Amino acid sequence: MKTNIKFLLCAVLFVVGYGCIGNNSPNSPPLADAGPDQTVSDVDRNGSEEVKLEGSGSRDENGTIIGWTWSDDLGGTIPDGPNPSATLDVGTHIIALTVIDNKGAVATDTVKITVDCPVLHTADSANAGPMGSASAFDAKPDTFWETVGSFPHWIQADFGIQPKTIRGYTLHTGSHGKDGTDSTGRMPKDWRFEGSNDGEDWTILDTRTNQTDWEPSEIRAYSCADTDSFRYYRLYIAAGVNANILRLYEMTLTTQTDPNFIEPKAETLPGGVGAAIPDPGTSRPAGDSAGTGEAESFTFIILPDTQHYTLKYPQIFTSQTQWIKDNKKAMNIVFVLHEGDFTNGDTDVEWQRANTSMSILDGVVPYTFCAGNHEFPNAGRPPANCRDNAKLNQYFPPGRFENEPWWGGCDPNNPDARYVFFDAAGMGFMIVSLEFGPNDAMLRWANQVVSEFPNKRIIFLTHCYMYEDDTRVGPGDQWGCRGWAGDGNDGEQMWDKFVKLHENIFLVLSGHILGDGLGRLTSTGVNGNPVHQILANYQDPPIPIGNGGNGWLRIMKFVPRENKIEVRTYSPWLDKFAADEQNQFDLVYPMTTKRLSSENGYRSGPSAGLC
User: Alpha helices, DSSP H only, in 249-389?
Assistant: First the structure.
């Protein structure tokens, strides 16, 4: 019997990393070393590149490492072993190495691998070597691109599958010739700076004329009109200082806004754009909708559950809101919607972190939110009061927003049931937010508010609505909200009691659900109107290393002239788009018939007001 007890104790201690009593000293876990961070180029520009990983630096002081397992946060497959090779897509990957020793102890380390798509430079001339197009982008003051012959000429940069938002560019002269005249006398004089995503349809970002009096070794910097990202950027040169020879020593493109840059001009090149100047594609001013006269595109951003960011990774949350602020003008971001679960444990530390991140948007981009179950103590589970959201209203009370022009009002009995407004492209929108598992009284309030604004286009925001199988949350679904606090409604009930009843509700957004955290469904309301219903929650992705969600957010770009909404998924933390069909898709939404916000003012109706 004593032998059996000792055997059992040995077995237990072996599992936790110790040897048998009296036989071995405690086992120290191994040290995992995933190697240095790497940046490699996608040489053939096919979207991926083979990378050799370096895990052989892992060691074990009192044992032997017997296994090396690698995992890619973006889902790529990596062979086991200390130094495997893996084919990684263009973008930033966080690769995790897990090692195990002969006594069962494990350790993990991560490495950041960035696969860049190299920029390809081309021009209308066939010059190569020191006078080829690449010489204008090589950061060398004595090399240049040169072409001879009648104008126009062009030189361009192709960013491949990694489009960029370029906000400025510089042109450099050299110092060749007597008094530098070989360089200054051959510079561009009249040009357009343009962007394109297909190399044929070009958007004018900046126009310059009569750029003369260049000095030796001079750098002139210019700003671009605010714009979307483009794959191609082109300097289309209509005339040069010299009528027959064009020389450009250096050209740089920047994604940053520089106050020293010359502001973009609205000048038109001699003869008019596309008239006297031959144009291989179609050019139009930035912001113009290809001559259709339709309204410009606009964007709003969706922030899925951030609970693990405020718990462990506050810097990722901040990277999201800082990116939104930095791209407000370029993307015409009109509103930000947080899908709930700011925090994981409803603690002051987490709320302070949430406030720090969200405050970046104050006075810059309007935002709204709904209350998730983790906004309540103990995530709303007994013995806590399931609808006690005191800390949410301590850090984000209605009074924080009530003086904003876009604020609408809230339920006097529940400050987390609220509505806000925004106008874009001549259309008036309203966002109605309800907390996790709203009860019948909250749904009656929402029905009343939406009925008071029949000319608004309505977005419904709530924490728990869609499920991961592309259906609405219903009875028996895991993580459901039916019966929450004894009277909560789930997605199916919200559809029946509220959403389907209103002709002007066109979009429902929610988070909360785990699994793959993704789903979408388009249903038809009782008035024949289509309603798009979308789930996005990246806190628990089906990949080993997620950093609480890795900063993934949703971009919803409304394109009125095409009657569509482009939905894209992007991580400012990783600087990467998710390109699968669950994360990149378009929705049909008619916007040609405008309902102007002036038809029904912001603060009209008995439900409008303060809480």
Answer: 307-311, 314-326, 328-331, 348-359
| Alpha carbons 593 and 12: distance in angstroms, whole number | 71
Q: Is the dihedral of CA 459, 463, 469, 475 positive or negative?
A: negative
Give 275's pLDDT tier (boundaries 50, 70, 90). very low
Share of the chain above pLDDT 70, in %: 80
Residue 391: pLDDT band (50, 70, 90) is confident
Using the 3D structure, point to which of 116, 133, 168 is the last residue of a domain.
116
Tell me what the pLDDT averaged over the chain comes to.
81
Helices then strands, counting H and E runs in the chain, come out as 9, 31
With cut-offs at 50, 70 and 90, classify the pLDDT of residue 284.
very low
**Judgement on whether residues 112 and 169 belong to the same structural domain of the protein:** no
Tokens of 157: 């940069």
CA quadruple 56, 58, 62, 68: dihedral positive or negative?
A: negative
- Measured between alpha carbons, how far is 169 from 252 in angstroms, rounded to an integer? 5
What's residue 593's pLDDT?
55
What distance in Å separates the CA atoms of residue 285 and residue 290, rounded to the nearest whole number? 9
Q: Tell me which H or E stretch contains 75.
A: none
- The whole-angstrom distance between residue 474's C-alpha and the CA centroid of its chain comes to 30
- What is the CATH number for 242? 2.60.120.260
The CATH number covering residue 460 comes to: 3.60.21.10
The answer to whether the beta carbons of residues 49 and 20 sit under 8 Å apart is no
Domain enclosing residue 129, as ranges: 120-285
Q: What angle do CA 92, 301, 441 make, to 5 degrees?
A: 135
Number of Cβ within 10 Å of residue 84's Cβ equals 15
Residues 415 and 529 in one domain: yes
Residue range 409-445, pLDDT digits in tens: 988 888 889 999 999 988 999 999 999 889 899 999 9
User: Is a pLDDT exceeding 60 seen at residue 19?
Assistant: no
Mode of pairing for the β-strands spanning 282-285 and 201-208: parallel
5 occurs within a structural domain: no
- R_g of the chain computed on alpha carbons: 29
Do 100 and 181 have their domain in common?
A: no
Q: What is the structure's pLDDT at 452? A: 92
Single out the residue in 70, 99, 116 at which a domain terminates. Answer: 116
Query: Are the C-beta atoms of residues 374 and 385 closer than 8 Å to each other?
Result: no
